[in-house]
Amino acid sequence: FKVNDLTIGTIGLTTQYIPHWEQPDYIKTLTFNSAVHILKSELPTLREKSDIVVVSYHGGFERDLDSGLPTEALTGENEGYDILSQFSDSIDVLITGHQHRDIATIKNQTAIIQPGSKGTKVGKIVIEYTHDKKVLIK
After folding, report:
1. Residue 72 contacts residue 81 (beta carbons within 8 Å)
2. Model-level pTM?
């Protein structure tokens, strides 16, 4: 979408793990794929056509953002760390959820939020964009 003269590209993803808890009859016409797999396919084109790229991912982080050590079993339910590791050069903002954690940080020049749960927190990311196409995120 456009904001003034900027093109902001967005992509929404959910965890591939839904079939592990959802009633099969509710999802029988759906296919669930790895968020990493989808981004490998779709992100290059989105990045090429966008000044700013926002990924909204209903999933969390399977590893600690600083150490990279696992924080849970590596089942594929939460691929946020893998998304950052593989695509941070192409993603300006990563909005996450699912784990209900309070996360507000910047890693590898990508702003990351996960604003808790049940509407108890509001996540805010400020993006400044200069005419020479440099993005500053706070």
Report:
1. no
2. 0.91
